[in-house]
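Appendix B, example 12.
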Amino acid sequence: KLNIGLFRFAYPRYPHISQIEVSPAERAYTLDLRAVMNPTPPTVLHSTPLPQMFQLFRAIGLRHLIVTNDDSEVVGMVTRKDLARYRVVHEGGRLERTTLHITEQVE
């Protein structure tokens, strides 16, 4: 049997943020990301139903989806991982959402 503990040691270990030293000159560095950023990313309202968000992820191949309020202010972000936690089932005209749990043990 495999468990998640076996894999934790295989991943690289990084220093804690408190152990990283950044010089004053390095703090002044900038990186222009305009060439790789999307100036008009897809967004949804905070009241958008979960199935509609899921369809957007599937149709456009999104990894992240920005959530805005009624005033178009950013209030959050939904990721693929967030959506992977839920299963939405339509039964007899009812919409039911269940949370999927990832186990620590793989058989």
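Residues 49 and 55 are 10 Å apart (CA to CA). The two ends are 6 Å apart (CA to CA).
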